[in-house]
Amino acid sequence: QVQLVESGGGLVQAGGSLRLSCAASGSIFSIYAMNWYRQAPGKQRELVANITSGGNTNYADSVKGRFIISRDDAKNTAYLQMNSLKPSDTAVYYCNAEGVLTTMGGANYWGQGTQVTVSS
Fold first, then answer.
1. 8 A C-beta contact, residue 66 and residue 7
2. Which of 2, 3, 66, 97 is buried most deeply by CB count within 10 Å?
3. Of 22, 3, 31, 1, nearest to 93 (Cα)?
4. What secondary structure letter does DSSP report for 65?
5. In this predicted model, what pLDDT tens digit does every residue of 6-37 receive, in sequence order?
6. For residue 57, what are the β-bridge partners?
């Protein structure tokens, strides 16, 4: 059984920074991509950033230049460094692990979400 646990959310003033972590646990051989999504009240879930096993990254236009995604494969952990935060970044942030290979085969997993609130 693979579990994803996010941490690092909280309340911050506009212009501040937060660092989210997503740790995957279980008998994991490899993870193809680790993705961060967010969902604000009344809005659809959107992809914020992702990083592949090869280190390729992709960002939503709204966070380019402010957010940095990284991963530590030895720890099966992904990070999202969020700088220059805006009130519009307020949302529940979800971690998604794509192409997780275990003894049971490959699958995708979601974390439970962590709330990020940016005050003006």
1. no
2. 97
3. 22
4. T
5. 999 999 999 999 999 999 999 999 999 999 99
6. 51
3-state secondary structure of 46: strand
The neighbour count for residue 63, using CB atoms within 10 Å, is 21
State the burial class of residue 76 (Cβ atoms within 10 Å of its Cβ: 0-12, 13-18, 19+).
buried
Long-range contacts of 65-69 (CB under 8 A, 24+ apart): 69/34, 69/36
Which of 28, 14, 15, 13 has its CA nearest to residue 78?
Answer: 28
Q: What is the pLDDT of residues 37-77, one digit of tens each?
A: 999 999 999 999 999 999 999 999 999 999 999 999 999 99
Tell me the C-alpha distance between 39 and 85, whole Å: 16
Beta-bridge mates of residue 118: 12
What angle is formed at CA 79 by the lines to CA 26 and CA 48, rounded to 5 degrees? 110
